[in-house]
């Protein structure tokens, strides 16, 4: 199947369209909210919340006997919220570090959830099969109403974020200071965290408990590499998340038997790796290139400074000197000399060189402090 | 000196006790800070200087005690108070610009939801100018030097246009030129009748910069005019070692 065929299929095939839309909306929501989690250094939070949701799913099934997504996800939401507020409680009431509290709740709830799942599977009731899809997700079970729900929650989340943008930003940057300005930081915090819980719960059906936190972190981590503005970061994270959903669905739909959730997470990880290598300002590649360029420039400057040193001894700055003289200088190579000529700093005549006027001035100003702030 | 009327008390702390764990890090602090002074809080590392400021500002909840600002509770007087936190308390890799950080100083008077507009931007630019950082307004904050970051924090507090300023080590890691620039701003604030409270580590410069001083080491050792109480006796009591300051006069 080629790309145009696939795109056509997305528009005509009901299931594929639903899954594509669902994963795109989910990716956008988690990317957006993930930016906040990443900037608060709460990377583990998503992991803890998604794992904490598992027992809720099991209990909701045990109580109602129903297997429809909405009932189970309400269970997930409740236990996710309980887990989250226990984490907050542990951090404020005891003196455990927040990663300890996160780890504790994560394993406690997940362990309990797994216990319940095994218990349910041992039941003679034929209805029990399929709950374990929440472990790794099953995008194929998405229906239109699920997508609507995701879209509505994402929309509300977007509105709240835009309304409280200023409050979110200042809390993320400097919580203590925010408090002194008279803002109720607890309210802002609960608002952000509740939306993160909501987004995670909505993603459980598609991506599953185990990998859900990657949906939160990967797009945000990738986005951070490309920009120094919070608004741009949130926007890019949403975009990367949405694309991960769309590409992930496409790959798993065209390659038989690849389950969608893990593929989406892999695509999101590709965004991360790509961003960490290729981002112009923070990426590893450009850092290395800048480093090499700086080193070359430095060699050039050193040579120029050395020449300036020699030229200074003469009344006439353009007085020619023997190239041989430069051999005494360590950083000197033929190619640096050639570059200096290209830049019009130096003129060559036979095996003599002389500094040009610009060359002399540039050299004289090389190591005086550059007071250029051109912004 | 400039505090002519001793009767007006800007900040009053009563029986303040603060603990993170079981052991109090501040013990029964009573403190009266007169209006219009430029006061240093001195004490060794871990003495509780930052904790004192945080407790006064309601960032930390004390076990006991109360704080009043001009005879009313701090909650009612919040607008009168500005805070410069220790520079290391935030992540400077946060994606934002210098101007944006300074604008945050206006958020308190804006209140919930309302966005900063032209008026707020103008105030922020003026504050940046005052601390000599106007040229850096669009800089990503991680690309500022430590001293420049410190000045951004100072500008953010100046924007608040408060009556009382609490500053936690504003001279930390700044060079001599910046230090003079900052102290001149503080002196200007005092001249305008504001009260400025500064956690300070360099004992040598206390008599030169400040007119009021509080010695703190878990308990309050002494508080009062520098010329009366800044002596070897109090320094020894605060720092434990036998202190011989070569401070003249
Ligand atoms: N968040 C915290 N949790 C537990 N203990 C803390 C916390 N913050 C500070 N402390 C302890 O409280 C005491 C006072 O700390 P504080 O930061 O107020 O000291 P300081 O006088 O500002 O020191 P420095 O000069 O190093 O800034 C110290 O013993 C410190 O270890
Ligand atoms: Mg301190």
Question: Mind explaining what this structure looks like?
Answer:
Chain A: Belongs to the ABC-3 integral membrane protein family. Chain A: Keywords: Cell membrane, Membrane, Transmembrane, Transmembrane helix, Transport. Chain A: It comes from Winogradskyella flava. Chain A: One of its GO terms (biological process) is transmembrane transport. Chain A: Its main location: membrane. The complex is a heterodimer of chains A (375) and B (249). In chain A, a hairpin with a 2-residue loop joins strand 2 and strand 3. Helices cover 72% and strands 3% of the residues of chain A. Chain A has 375 residues and is an all-alpha fold. Chain A has two domains: 279 residues, ABC transporter involved in vitamin B12 uptake, BtuC (Orthogonal Bundle); 90 residues, Arc Repressor Mutant, subunit A. The radius of gyration of chain A is 30 Å and the shape is elongated. Chain A has 16 helices and three strands. The C terminus of chain A is likely disordered. In chain A, strands 1-3-2 form a three-stranded antiparallel beta sheet. With 249 residues, chain B is an alpha/beta fold. In chain B, strand 7, helix 7 and strand 8 form a beta-alpha-beta unit. In chain B, 33% of the residues lie in helices and 25% in strands. In chain B, helix 5 packs across helix 6. Chain B is built from ten helices and ten strands. The two termini of chain B are 16 Å apart. A six-stranded mixed beta sheet of chain B has the order 6-7-8-3-9-10, with helices on both faces. Bound molecules: adenosine-5'-triphosphate and magnesium ion. Adenosine-5'-triphosphate binds next to helix 1 of chain B. The site of magnesium ion has 4 residues of chain B, from helix 1.
């Amino acid at each position: 199947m080629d790309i145009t065929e696939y795109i056509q299929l997305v528009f005509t095939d009901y299931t594929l369209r639903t899954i594509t839309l669902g994963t795109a909306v989910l990716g956008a929501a988690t990317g957006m909210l993930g930016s906040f989690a990443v900037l608060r250094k709460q990377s583990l939070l998503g992991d803890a919340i998604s794992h904490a949701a598992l027992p809720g799913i099991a209990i909701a099934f045990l109580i109602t006997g129903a297997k429809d997504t909405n009932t189970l996800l309400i269970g997930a939401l409740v236990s996710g919220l309980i887990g989250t507020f226990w984490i907050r409680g542990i951090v404020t009431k005891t003196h455990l570090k927040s990663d300890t509290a996160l780890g504790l709740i994560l394993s406690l709830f997940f362990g309990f959830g797994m216990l319940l799942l095994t218990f349910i599977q041992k039941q003679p009731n034929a209805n029990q099969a399929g709950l374990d899809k929440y472990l790794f997700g099953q995008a194929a079970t998405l229906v239109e109403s699920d997508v609507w729900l995701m879209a509505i929650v994402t929309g509300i989340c977007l509105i709240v974020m835009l309304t409280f943008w200023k409050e979110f930003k200042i809390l993320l940057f400097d919580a203590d200071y925010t408090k002194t300005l008279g803002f109720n930081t607890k309210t802002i915090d609960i608002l952000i965290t509740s939306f993160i819980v909501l987004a995670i719960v909505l993603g459980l059906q598609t991506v599953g408990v185990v990998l859900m936190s990657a949906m939160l972190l990967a797009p945000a981590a990738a986005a951070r590499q490309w920009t120094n503005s919070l608004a741009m970061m949130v926007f890019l994270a949403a975009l990367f998340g949405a694309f991960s959903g769309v590409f992930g669905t496409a790959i798993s739909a065209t390659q038989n038997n690849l389950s969608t959730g893990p593929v989406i997470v892999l695509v999101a990880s590709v965004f991360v790796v790509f961003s960490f290598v290729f981002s112009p300002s923070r990426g590893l590649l450009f850092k290395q290139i800048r480093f090499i360029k700086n080193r070359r420039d430095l060699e050039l400057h050193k040579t120029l400074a050395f020449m300036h040193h020699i030229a200074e001894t003469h009344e006439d700055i353009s007085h020619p000197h023997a190239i041989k003289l430069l051999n005494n200088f360590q950083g000197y190579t033929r190619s640096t000399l050639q570059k200096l000529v290209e830049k019009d700093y130096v003129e060559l005549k036979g095996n003599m060189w002389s500094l040009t006027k610009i060359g002399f001035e540039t050299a004289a100003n090389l190591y005086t402090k550059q007071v250029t702030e051109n912004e | 000196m400039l505090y002519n009327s001793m009767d007006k008390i800007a900040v009053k702390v009563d029986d303040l006790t603060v603990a993170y764990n079981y052991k109090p890090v501040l013990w029964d602090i009573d403190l009266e800070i007169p209006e219009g002074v430029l006061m240093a809080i001195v004490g060794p590392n871990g003495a509780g200087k930052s904790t004192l400021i945080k407790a006064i500002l309601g960032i930390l909840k004390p076990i006991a005690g109360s704080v009043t600002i001009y005879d009313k509770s701090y909650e009612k007087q919040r607008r009168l108070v500005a805070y410069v936190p220790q520079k290391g308390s935030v992540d400077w890799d946060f994606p934002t610009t210098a101007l944006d950080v300074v604008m945050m100083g206006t958020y308190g008077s804006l209140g919930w939801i309302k966005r900063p507009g032209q008026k707020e931007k103008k105030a922020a630019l003026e504050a940046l100018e005052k601390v000599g950082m106007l040229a850096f307004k669009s800089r990503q904050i991680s690309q500022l030097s430590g001293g420049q970051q410190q000045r951004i924090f100072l500008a953010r507090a100046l924007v608040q246009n408060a009556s009382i300023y609490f500053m936690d080590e504003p001279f930390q890691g700044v060079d001599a030129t910046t230090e003079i620039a900052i102290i001149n701003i503080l002196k200007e604030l005092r001249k305008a009748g504001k009260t400025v409270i500064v956690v300070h580590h360099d004992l040598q410069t206390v008599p030169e910069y400040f007119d009021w001083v509080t010695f703190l080491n878990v308990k309050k050792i002494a508080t009062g005019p520098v010329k009366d109480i800044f002596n070897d006796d109090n320094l020894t009591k605060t720092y434990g070692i036998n202190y011989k300051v070569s401070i003249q006069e």
